[in-house]
Amino acid sequence: MSIATAVGKSAVAIIRISGSHTEEILMNHCRIQNASLQVPLPERKMRLCSFLDAEKKLLDTGLFVFYKGPSSYTGEDGAELFLHGNILLLRMMMDSIVKSGLAQPAEAGEFTKRAYLSGKLDLTQAEAVNRMICARSERELFASRRNLEGELSRMVAKFRSTLLLLKAQEEARIDFSTEGLDFQEPHEQKEKLDDLIQQLDSILNCARETEKICLGFQIALVGRPNVGKSSFFNQILGWDRSIVSNQSGTTRDYVSEEIQLEGVPVRVIDTAGLRETQDSIEKQGVMFTKKIIRQSHLILNMMDGISDEESNTISFFSSVKPNIPMIHLLNKWDLEQVRSVYPQIKQRFPDIFCVSCLTKEGLDKIRKQIQDTLFSESSAEEGLLLEERNRYHFMEAKKSLQKVSELWKEKAPDEIVAIEIDEALFHIGSVTNPVQTEEILGRVFSVFCVGK
Ligand code: GDP
Predict the structure, then answer these.
(1) Sheet bearing 10-18, strands edge to edge
(2) Dihedral sign, Cα of residue 86, residue 87, residue 89, residue 94
(3) Cβ–Cβ contacts within 10 Å for residue 413, how many?
(4) Superfamily of domain 225-374
(5) What are the phi and psi torsion angles at 450 (to 5°)?
(6) Of 20, 126, 211, 246, which has the fewest beta carbons less than 10 angstroms from its beta carbon?
(7) Which of 221, 240, 241, 244 has the most ligand 1 atoms within 8 A of CB, as the residue to mutate?
(8) What is the pLDDT of residues 170-224, one digit of tens each?
(9) Which CATH architecture has domain 2-106?
């Protein structure tokens, strides 16, 4: 039993119960119109009730739902109590149930662990539950959702059945090697094996890409003071976060904020302007800028054409972090003065984008260009997520299959090949249903929140 909602003040909070004593707990602690509950309890129906403590004193009025196992989240009998969201009240309710000796506070992830142990979810789905709760971006949320719906489990099932076929062939070869029976042609088997290795490879790559996306990107907005960085920063965020001023060197420290681009978290950092300066605070700002650039995935280099020192600025960035993608922006496009210098600037920066933070011209184009630069083609697809544990098993399975390929090439004995196929089977199987040890389950479920 545990509180399933976030702790704090809320209109409603939920206490979750799972286990064979659920009905008894409800009979002891809930009353409908002042009368005891009647068995059998109505399943999956919300009922208005009074919640009582161990001494039958009224604690609250709310709702409860009873879930009869195995048609419940955990597979066991379960219930949810909806009370007012005051932590004191919730604790009083929980304490009185614990006092009855019919339930105890749940551990982190215990409900999902029970669901896993009763076969309601496999391990990849259980892991996806936690990811869904902790997801920091829409992308991560959707990728977790797909795993929860069994996408990864279906892939694993497909791999397993292909591997079992390969294994059966090897076993048959071993058992009937002297009887001249017709087996699948070696090259057909080889094709299947290569295909499997390739699929494992693409899963691992796709997961790496998705993980990168889920962690998000960092963009450094740089340029000479007064070119309009803060104005651009505010435009990208959609609200005024940075101070805009026509006095050079206004942004002395960096300002950073996270936005979501296509459901991906992107941290945009408005850096201190870059210029030779005697001002010690501004000097520090420039040092920070260098550090930020080293950690960034993209530089937005802004200029306004009025200063002619952009070339120096570019070489400055390149020396801080070579090969970092850079988008050049010519701001203040609304000014005639800027338009007039455009041809010269275009010669130096053929891919430059013209924008005006004042009129908002060109901003949508820039947003699109940022997305195209940060998200590679594969990452634009719906992603696939692998927890560290699964990545390890997929990698080990791939290694074993590569070994099988080598063994076949060397015409090694079938018995040895079969051992490697077994190894691959073990790792693939471990993704969804590992050999159950408390250590593995403890590792998976300890990162969950209590109540899930
Ligand atoms: P930063 O020092 O690079 O952060 O520059 P700011 O964003 O503080 O802008 C410096 C000055 O340029 C301010 O007076 C802004 O109002 C002005 N400014 C910024 N963007 C534009 C623009 O697109 N057009 C015009 N005309 N002025 C702009």
Answers:
(1) 2-3, 10-18, 78-85, 58-67, 47-52, 30-32, 35-36
(2) positive
(3) 13
(4) P-loop containing nucleotide triphosphate hydrolases (3.40.50.300)
(5) -70, 140
(6) 246
(7) 244
(8) 888 777 666 655 555 567 788 989 999 999 999 999 888 888 878 889 999 888 8
(9) 2-Layer Sandwich (3.30)
